[in-house]
Design brief:
Layout lengths: L4 H14 L3 E4 L14 E4 L6 E5 L4 E5 L4 H10 L2 E2 L13 H7 L6 H4 L6 E7 L5 E5 L11 H4 L9 E8 L1 E2 L3 E8 L2 H12 L5 E7 L2 E8 L1 H11 L2 E2 L3 H9 L11 E5 L12 E5 L4 E5 L4 H10 L3 E5 L13 H14 L15
Parallel strand pairs: 1-2
Antiparallel strand pairs: 3-4, 4-8, 5-9, 6-7, 6-8, 10-12, 10-13, 11-12, 11-15, 14-16, 14-17, 15-16
Length: 350
């Protein structure tokens, strides 16, 4: 594994001088996210390897091309984990892709999002300059945390080189309870549990069944199991892994929708196949209804909708209000004035 930061920076400088757009990617396992980018490929896959990991400090630093599997194997050996459960869309899915896409797994509503665990990063901006933001310690809080700005930016603001992440100890015990629930009752139940001190760290409603993952001390998990009731799900690790990695049957065909909503929002009047998680705050929908109908219905409920699939001409992400779009343009101009880094991946204007 090697540090090829200088090589990547030189390629960006050359592209900026020639005004050649670059499609920044690792192993391209997330090619179906965002809008399609027709550009020359800049791969960070060879910029890989764990740079520093001290379990006692609960911090790991790795290069962006490092496979998530390699990072999680190192953490697992020390009894630790990436608490935001980043999806892996292939065995080679990289750390850079996880940060750039900003996606979190089933534990997100209970432990925090990707950006909550990013302590610092090193990037190449659109001018080919290597910049460093944040740090490698959890106490490092000074001014605006630009490193978190790279989370979910899809490589449009900079080429991620290295990332420092906060990690957490793995729970001593974990199990999943499952029972039959109509969807409206399941939403109410998830909201009720969110306000109580039960050790729930993941929830999902699918095909008329409510799944609750309990994690914590053996005593707390056992007490919650007795009080909450339900059947203990055998092989539950595989279920949550498939949910995390979008491998459940409803994800087999694209496109589908990822809806971000207030957890208290009722079921929406949209026909299709539903999967609900994060206590009701994240909902997946496979439907044949028109794009504008889906977006407006979700907006009326106080949320936003993202279209998942290889979309060449569609507006994948929810439209931005004019003021917010203007802010995004200013950020893009500051970090990538020649507009060469993943142009159009987020929005046509960016």
């Amino acid at each position: 594994m090697a540090d090829i930061a200088d090589v990547l920076a030189e390629k960006v400088r050359a592209a900026a001088a020639a005004k050649t757009p670059l499609a920044v990617q690792g192993t391209n396992s997330r090619h179906f996210l965002g809008r399609a980018v027709e550009s020359e490929t800049l791969s960070i896959a060879e910029h890989a390897g764990i740079i520093d990991y001290e379990p006692r400090e609960l911090v790991i630093t790795a290069r962006a091309g490092t496979p998530l599997a390699e990072i999680e194997a190192a953490l697992d050996a020390a009894g630790q984990m990436l608490a935001f459960e980043p999806p892996r869309f292939s065995a080679e899915s990289t750390l850079g892709g996880a940060i750039a896409s900003g996606l979190s797994g089933p534990r997100r509503a209970y432990a925090g999002a990707v950006r909550d665990f990013v302590l610092g990063c090193r990037v190449v901006n659109g001018k080919g300059e290597i910049l460093k933001f944040g740090g490698q310690v959890m106490k490092n809080v000074a001014g605006y945390d630009v490193s978190r700005l790279m989370t979910g930016a899809y490589g449009t603001l900079g080429v991620l080189l290295d990332v420092s992440l906060k990690v957490l100890p793995k729970p001593a015990a974990s199990l999943t309870l499952v029972r039959e629930y109509p969807v409206d009752q399941a939403l109410r139940r998830m909201r009720e549990l969110a306000g109580k001190p039960w050790p729930v760290d993941a929830s999902c409603h699918l095909d008329g069944r409510l799944y609750l993952r309990l994690s914590g001390s053996p005593e707390a998990v056992e007490t919650a199991k007795r009080r909450l009731g339900g059947e203990v799900l055998a092989g539950d690790e595989l279920f949550w892994q498939h949910l995390r990695d979008w491998q459940l049957p409803m994800f087999n065909e694209r496109p589908f929708w990822r809806l971000s909503l207030p957890a208290a929002a009722p079921m929406l009047p949209l026909d299709g196949e539903w999967l609900i998680e994060w206590g009701g705050a994240q909902r997946w929908l496979k439907t044949e209804q028109e794009i504008d109908v889906v977006r407006q219905t979700v907006a009326d409920a106080g949320g936003h909708a993202t279209l998942i699939g290889d979309q060449a001409g569609e507006d994948v992400f929810h439209p931005l209000p004019p003021a917010l779009l203007a802010l995004h343009r200013q950020l893009k101009q500051a970090f990538d004035p020649a507009n060469i880094l993943n142009p159009g991946r987020l929005y046509p204007e960016l």
